[in-house]
Amino acid sequence: MAALRWLHRRYKWLVAISALLTLGTLLHISQRPPVVKLVRRYRSNEQHANMAKWPTPLAQHWRANDEQLAALDTIIHNAQCTTCHSDIDWSHRQQRVVSAARTAWHSYVRDAFGHDDYFPLSHRGSNFTHLGIGYIVADVLDTLWLMGLQEEYKQGRDFLANQVTFDQRGTVSLFESTIRILGGLLSAYHLSGETDTKLLALADDLGSRLAKSFNTTLGIPPETAILRSDGMPFAGVCSTSESSTLQLEFRYLAKLTNNPVYRENVDRIIDVMLNAPKYDSLVPTRIDSKTGQFVGTEISLGSRGDSYYEYMLKQWLQTKQSEVDLRVEYDAAVRGVKKYLVRTSPRQGLTYVGEVVDLDNEPQFSPKMDHLVCFLAGNLALGATNGTHIRNAHLSARDRDDLVLARELGETCAHMYFDTQTGLAPEIAYFALSNETTNQITPNGDILVPLADRHSLLRPETVESFYLLWKLTGELKWREYGWRVFESIERWAQGEYTSLDDVMVEPPTRRDSVESFFVAETLKYLYLLFDDGDRVPLTQYVFNTEAHPLPIFSW
Predict the structure, then answer these.
(1) Which of 26, 76, 387, 520 is the most exposed place for a label (fewest CB within 10 A)?
(2) How far apart are CA 402 and CA 63, in angstroms?
(3) Regarding predicted confidence, which is higher, 38 or 257?
(4) What are the phi and psi torsion angles at 207 (to 5°)?
(5) So which residues are the catalytic ones?
(6) Residue 239: closest CA among 183, 307, 323, 322
(7) pTM, whole model, 2 decimals?
(8) Can you tell me whether residue 432 is helix, strand or coil?
């Protein structure tokens, strides 16, 4: 009997402990935000309350003129010639780009293989977490595959498959980890035949860890993710572009893994954004994660704004143009860009995209254009043609207008390179509103670059647009422009490829840094620009914002 009483007491203690554990679990769950089921999808036409402050002169209503439309007609007519070709040996130029990528990879392998950051001049690397997350290797892997660098690809792939784990302590950028690592893994998995289960498993593991960041009140994540984390992350005011530039990657991951939660998480963010009041479909660079309202003091297609507009179009393309509300929102945003942000400089006649600043007080136009904005030229061409060459595209009046703007912006971005002493573009440019002469980069020119903005990170946005404009229009000058950019890179950054301090002096001082996007994006787009074939058909793929091609699919 004593033994029975002892067992009974132990049993009561076990029951009590179990109850406490159950209560703790329930309390933990109760702290999680409710799942907000938004109608799929409600797109609000409501204007932001601050629109009442906007002065009438802000609206400039850019439209293509007759001369620009006539030039476009000539391009369309010339595109009908399917036997026309250049005498230039583009395959040789393409191999020059392959050589540059090989050199950059081998330097990284020699000095810092496996590290997340690379310092070429001091021949060392560092990690973003204690163990590292394969940041550079994952980002450049599909470039190595596309260029046929099979030994280098295997070296990178084997490192990721055998030595990288995301089961570790540390915080990472949700945005950068998604577009560079997750996007890179998914692209390499697809391009290599969708048979490498280790790459997919690694992508799934990373995706599941990053997805915990969506466990917020409205699903809008914080800008950092904790690799080992449960519960409700804290998110306050977040970057607009970083929150809206996760969708291509997680939707494709959902397709590959048959896990709809990945898609639901990122679609929920877009639902919130489509519901929010805007400025004629333009959005500030910040969003409040708790209210779902756009906040911030500026509207920009540069930092923290750019890829919101990019992914609105590309999500529509990704699922075979099936989600009409995304296309409607993209078209409305382009109308807003033309209405408020597009201007033409007074002397050189350069078409550029500025910003609206001081939204909370007295909104005004700023003639500031980040190099990042140069993505828009290619994006406009993609939106006008839906990835189809203009010889086969059915162009509406709106499409023609968008193509003209694409070509004009492409020319302006080319000037940002070719008007400097080094032939490389600065990080940020300003455009003269009148006959200003301070910080001009050429005599009587309209591009103004303050000293603090003269550095170059060897960014990809301009050559990305050259590639898209070439593929969609067949206009040879975009290939020539790309070659000039590559020659300038080779002249000033060759060998230990690095970022540069000042594009306005010869020779520019090198920085002891290089971004992974130099190989992952800049060299990849140059390689594809010089390709006489069609390695990545634009009717079958969308590029994520880190130049990782992902296939178009149906659910």
Answers:
(1) 26
(2) 9
(3) 257
(4) -60, -40
(5) 176, 306, 427, 461
(6) 307
(7) 0.92
(8) coil
